[in-house]
């Protein structure tokens, strides 16, 4: 039996969308983000009507829902705690240990969200290599799949949360010199921000199916990526402002560091709320 014609899209070696054209003018579309977040593919009819169909069994869909609840909740709580820590640093007692404790708790939730996002990818329905059939992977807690763009994006995100953990742990150290502060606290902060930005760019590539960012205001997934990426930009601004000048032994700009952290944290909390709606 002749197989329907299909078209692959993506950036570089990565395939993020497959379209099968069927008799009668219908097009069946598999997208990597929709598959792992919604557990579905779409069928576009001749009149541009779009229908979503589940591509996983009930057990797999339930697993994807639970993972989405954990990931979205973790990012919401992580962002909320980071926002609280920034408010205390800016308006509160200024106690460094108190702020560091709240930031560290938020970092734990960010790491949980990052790891759960990676597990979502590993458990997402995917197309089989030879034909167009879609299969649901067995329950997995770890895997190495660097040729999948969604895996690469979430792995870099998870790595960024772990690097942030080093920064947050080192912030409890007392009596550091300026050089030690910049090396042990500031440098992991910047590296973590860079990893967040890289992960966000890869997420844009996945949802836009090309190397350049796009605007898809009607796509909930696009808004999740855009809000989180804006939060990553604000985190980077805050990190750069938190550099300690060797000559004055003071931060470049304390207000920008605190306000940037607050704004970025609120973006990730909002992203968590939006992600909760992007469910199977």
Mean pLDDT: 86
Tally the beta strands.
7
Strand content: 5-15%
| Derived structural class | alpha+beta
The poorly predicted ranges are: none
How are strands sequenced across the largest beta sheet? 1-2-3-4-5
Distance between termini?
32 Å
Order of helices and strands: EEEHEEHHEEHHHH
Overall 3D form: elongated
Cα-based radius of gyration, to the nearest Å: 21 Å
Assembly type of the chains comes to single chain
Largest sheet: 5 strands, antiparallel
Count every helix, treating DSSP H or I runs of 4 or more residues as helices. Answer: 7
Helix content: 55-70%
Query: Number of folding domains?
Result: 2
What does the model show?
It contains 7 helices and 7 strands, in the order βββαββααββαααα. Strands 1-2-3-4-5 form a 5-stranded antiparallel beta sheet. It has 280 residues and is α+β, with helices and mostly antiparallel strands. Helix 3 (96-122) runs antiparallel to helix 4 (149-170) and helix 5 (178-208) packs antiparallel against helix 6. A hairpin with a 5-residue loop joins strand 2 and strand 3. The protein is elongated, with a radius of gyration of 21 Å. The longest helix has 34 residues, at 58-91. It folds into 2 domains: 5-54, no CATH class; 58-277.
């Amino acid at each position: 039996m002749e197989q329907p014609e299909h078209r692959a899209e993506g950036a570089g070696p990565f395939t993020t969308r497959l379209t099968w054209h069927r008799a009668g003018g219908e097009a069946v579309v598999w997208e990597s983000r929709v598959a792992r977040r919604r557990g579905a593919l779409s069928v576009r009819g001749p009149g541009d009507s779009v229908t979503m169909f589940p591509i996983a069994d009930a057990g797999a869909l339930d697993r994807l829902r639970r993972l989405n609840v954990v990931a979205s909740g973790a990012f919401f709580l992580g962002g909320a705690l980071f926002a609280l820590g920034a408010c205390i640093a800016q308006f509160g007692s200024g106690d460094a240990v108190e702020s560091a404790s709240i930031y560290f708790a938020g970092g734990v939730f960010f790491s949980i969200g990052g790891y759960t996002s990676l597990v979502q990818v590993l458990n997402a329905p995917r197309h089989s290599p030879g034909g167009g059939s879609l299969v649901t992977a067995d329950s997995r807690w770890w895997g190495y799949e660097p040729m999948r763009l969604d895996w690469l994006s979430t792995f870099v995100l998870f790595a960024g949360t772990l690097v942030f953990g080093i920064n947050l742990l080192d912030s409890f150290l007392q009596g550091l010199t300026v050089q030690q502060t910049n090396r042990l606290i500031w440098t992991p902060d910047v590296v973590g921000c860079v990893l967040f930005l890289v992960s966000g760019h890869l997420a844009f590539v996945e949802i836009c199916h090309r190397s350049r960012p796009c605007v898809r205001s009607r796509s909930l997934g696009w808004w999740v990526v855009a809000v989180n990426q804006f939060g990553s930009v604000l985190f980077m601004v805050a990190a750069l402002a938190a550099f300690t000048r060797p000559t004055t032994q003071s931060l470049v700009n304390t207000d920008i560091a605190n306000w940037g952290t607050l704004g970025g944290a609120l973006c990730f909390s909002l992203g968590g709320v939006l992600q909760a709606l992007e469910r199977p």
